[in-house]
Fold each of these.
Amino acid sequence: MHVLPRVRELEERFADSVTVIGVHAGKFATERHTERIAEACDRLGVVHAVVNDRQFRVWRDYAVQAWPTVAVIDPEGYVAVVEPGEFDVEEMAGEIERIAARARSRGTLMPGPDPVASTLERHTGPLRFPTRAVVEGRSLWIADTGHGRVLECAWDASQHAASIVSEYAGFVEPRGLAALDGRMYVADRGGHQVWRLEGGERVNVAGTGRIGDYAIAAGPALSADLRSPWGLSPRGGMLAIAMAGTHQLWTLDTADGDLRLLAGAGGENIADGPLERAALAQPTGLALLPLGSLALADCETSAVRIADDAEVMTLVGTGLFEFGDRDGVGDEVLLQHCEDVASHGAALAVADTYNDRIKRVDPLTRGCGPWPGEAGESGAVREPGGVWSDGSTLLVADTGHHRIVTVAGDGALTEVRLS
């Protein structure tokens, strides 16, 4: 996700001499369906051609070793550059200019527009790929991610209805929402910042807007280069941040404006232990538990974990390449790229995103199974990105269906009417 904006910049800069072809070799089973890839292209604004390399044939032909990898092929068909990881835009631009100049001198470059015209039908509607919904007081807040905005709505729970009061626009990819001391905060994953929303205005409280490296410095939040802040939750008077891009949890002291590391050594893996030595893998969702611990959705390991004041513990999830849809207890359980978690009574509601359903996890027994009723049925929701609960009301951001739904006690789903 960090490479796509860089590819887009090069795509626009060299529009007359470079044709971009994406090759998608999906790690998760759901990512290998062409329909899902098209939806992801719609969500991410991808307009170039994309190959579904579901059997990893192109991957093997080019001896690729890592996600992402960029290869530059010259007009004569030779592989001129292979760059694994998050390449530097200016260095890559220099390579392209060098290759293009040589091709022009040989008469092999044929300038012109991309020969592949996008035929992708993009979703239109009041919401577009919403990823979070939370209630604070009499307001329903929605991260309308596909439109790059956050909506504040007057909330009528009895009628499952909401009317827009304020629109906070200008975000790149708003994700996590959390209320702290009566104020709403939003994590802009794609903009690498955290904002406070109030009175129709947004105030930057963390991040410079530049993507950081894998070593974020503790201290003043406004001078820190964040890296894909995703989930948010209040905790102990502070704002906890799931920093997916560094595989860590951080806290923001909104009083003094400082960032502090909460958990995660920085490597992408699943390993329990003391907070600063534990290994996380792209944490995307957070939920405050009754005794003050944090539940987290560790999506790249399809895991649900707990961080208390001393250590990180795993409820379900065993490895980076262990995923599926299997109920059971503890290490028997398989989820698929779960993106969010909410504390609902004595259980955890889990957005089992790539399995298109909501799961129920018991934090005491580590037992996991489908949420009762419709919410737990596969396909009732589509790639849900967020769940939220105040203990009685359970909301789901039904991302792939472009809607917010409430979950009744029997698991029945009701779409929130937005006006």
Amino acid sequence: MPHGDPDPTDPMTLHGVVVETEDDSSVREMAECFIEEYIRTGFEPSRIMEMFRKREYAGPHLAYHALGEEAIRAMLDQHAALRAYRKPPAMMRNASGGLSLRILE
């Protein structure tokens, strides 16, 4: 297969679909996934909220626009408390100068 010419029978080819829903549950779930991922990575809640506000972050901004700031902030507060948000960075330098990742709990 030539480079850049996708094979329609390849099961690993990425396909996007639109799924219509009657409520905002799918957008809410997507927002919670973003929040959980970034909290676990070690991002500060204020930094995550800024991501939701900026148009450059299409998925989070879509959720921000659909659900509103209050709903996003409530989810962010809930996940920050649930994950016992701590200030330490996700990556830290060890004694030998290499990078080490904080283990997700």
Amino acid sequence: MKAPQSLQKTLGVGLTAGVTLLWMLALLGALYVSQNKLNELFDSTLAETAHRIMPLAVVEIINRENLDQPQQIMSFEAHDKQFIYLVRDALGRILLQSHNADPSIFNQTLVKGFSSSKTHRFYRTSAIQNTLHIEVAQPLIDRREAITQMAITLLWPLILIIPLCFIGSLAFVRYSFRYVIAYRDEVESRGSSDLSPVKMDGLPTEIITIAESVNNLLDRLRRALDSERSFTANSAHELRTPIATALAQIQRLQQKVSAGPIKDSMVKIETTIRGLSGLSEKLMQLAKAEGGGLLSTERHDLISLLSMIVDDTRRSNPGKIITLAIPQNEAFMSVIDPDAFAILIRNLLDNAIKHGISNQPVEISFSSKGVLSIANAASVIPVETLTQLRQRFVRSNLSVQGMGLGLAIADAIVTGVGATMTFSSPAAGRVDGFEVEVDFSMILK
């Protein structure tokens, strides 16, 4: 799958590439027009030079005593002339030439007007009834150098414009996307339990439709979850009274019945009713874990809460060894709701006690970094089962009484408060056992 790309970067690069392309096209157009104009200017200068030299050459040739001997015009100073010329008669004999003229580069036939070779541009004109002809040549390299210098002059600012254009484009795009970035940040900062509508202030028309669809989806999801939680909580609440009544009635009947098959059946019925009572309690806890109210406005010390919950669990399970290791004289303040924290710890302890080996202790620790660890001795749980323990009604050991909701409730609370929970089997530093670690470091105040 193709990796996602930043829209800001894409637009910045695209705008810069577009400006660069337009600049290059404009540069090519300017060079094309300039080359034509320069050629016209050079041709005009070439013709003007021929017309100016021709009268002087005619006077020089007419006043000469010996016409058979060609004469070379000497330069007063050593320099490279831009123009060179030859003056010839109708038969092509050279009568006069500039000091650095090479006859081999000139046209061997007398061609009137402009002509070109691979290296030079020529202009020829005549005088005295076409008896004298002058041909002036200019190296084409001079024209190429002029065009090259002009191209460099127009091109080098582009080296500065490209990075400036890229920075400016990114700044402009980021400024234009400021409301989209704010919308993204608000969505990213939300927890999984926050399904309230996302603010759409200032969003562009291309994005606002998506934002409205997201808010509509959140609204439908919130109503569906609220309906589910309400049904779960109300059902569990409404079941508590008839379950408690039925349990009381069956206990009264047991006192009136003597030992026998009927009493044994009543004991099984009582066990089933107690299971229904525990299920209703778990469903109410699940409704609270998946709903709101997991965070409070006040801060509470998790160490004190943990100590009280462990002491209460010890009293409820007198035959079970539960060890607790906590930092001394240190408080860990958090905005986690005390009831939600108690539900979390009780479900984790209840899971460790039920699924642990009866004569082995349950070890609880709370590190100085804010990591809670609960470990119990047990057979190693397969990896495929370990990854499913967060789901509802999933148990690692079907022979143990339970509904498979404890770890699902714990996972819902941990996710809702912004902490993280990991399962390990075997436990750390052991060859067997099961360990749960809950990292509260990100939410401790």
